[in-house]
Amino acid sequence: MPELGDSYLTVTYNNGITFLATSQPHAVYFFVIFALDKPFTWPHRERHTEEEAQLLAETIMDKPVTEELLFGEVWRRRTRAVVISLEECVMDHWHHGRIVLAGDAVHKVHPNMALGGNSAIEGVTRVINNIHNIMQTTKGPKPSGTALSHAFAAYEKEMKQRMRELMDISNMVAKMHTYATPVHKLLANWILPIANDRLFADHMGGYLSAGPKLNFLPSIGFTNGLMEWKEKPDDYDEKNSLKNEIRITTTISELSISA
Q1: What local confidence, expressed as pLDDT, does residue 236 receive?
Q2: Residue 19 scores a pLDDT above 60
Q3: 66-74: average pLDDT
Q4: Any idea which fold 89-258 has?
Q5: CA dist 236 to 195, 216, 223, 239, 244, Å?
Q6: DSSP secondary-structure letter at 60?
Q7: Which residues contact 66 (CB under 8 A, 6 or more apart)?
Q8: Long-range contacts of range 161-168, CB-CB < 8 Å, 24 or more positions apart?
Q9: Domain assignments of the chain as residue spans, ordered by start
Q10: Looking at CB atoms within 10 Å, which of 33, 39, 50, 120 has the fewest?
C-alpha cells in the first residue's frame, strides 16, 4: 500500500483505539487495538469469531490511518484477520525443578513498544549465562537440581523487576495512544511532540544497553555505538570456549525451557 510506504512504522492515535502498521515492500502488517472498558483476568478468557472481527471493523471503517488512507481501504485489501486478546502480565513464579519459563510464557507486554520479542531473547540469554556460571564449578555435563534452581532464581531476580518496569511503560504508552484520559491525550498530542527527541533516544538506549550479552562468547570486533553495554566485557577463554559451549548445549537439551 503506497500510503504506508515500504519500510515504515505508522502509529495513529484515536479515542479508544489505535492503529499500528509496519510495512514491507510486499506486505503490510496491521494492528487495530481497542481499549477495553475494564480489564479481565484469568481464568476468564475471551474467544472471538470471524463474524466478530467483521462487526468490529465496520465500526471504524471511516477512521483515518493517514491523511490519505482510511481504515476501510486497509480492511478491504486484507488477506486475513483475527481478533485476539492482548495480555499484560509478569508472573510471580518463573521456575520449578528443572523447568524454567522465558518470554511470553512468563511475561507479556503491550506490542506498542515492540520489545516483547527482544525481552524473550534477553531472558533466554540470562538463563544461558547463569547456566554457564554454574557449569564453571560443576563436574560433568549434568548439574544438580539444586545448582539449576540457584541459576534459575538468579535469572528471575535479574529479569523480573526489569520486565515490570517495561510493562508499566508499555501500559502508559498504550493509554496515550488511545486517549485513556485527558491527561494522556495532552501528553500524546502536545507534550511529547515538543520534547527533545534525544530524551526518548537516551531513555531507550539506556534501557537496551543494560541488557545482557552471552558472557562466554567474545564481544570484540563489533562497531561501538554512542552507548556502550553497561555490562563490562568478560575475559574470553578461547581455549575452553568450545568445551563450555558443548557442555551448555548438552545441559539445555536436558532442560525444559518454555518460551
Answers
A1: 47
A2: yes
A3: 95
A4: FAD/NAD(P)-binding domain (3.50.50)
A5: 42, 6, 18, 9, 11
A6: S
A7: 3, 4, 10, 12
A8: 162/210, 163/90, 163/107, 163/109, 163/119, 164/90, 166/109, 166/113, 166/115, 166/119, 166/207, 167/88, 167/89, 167/90, 167/107, 167/109, 167/110
A9: 2-76, 89-258
A10: 39
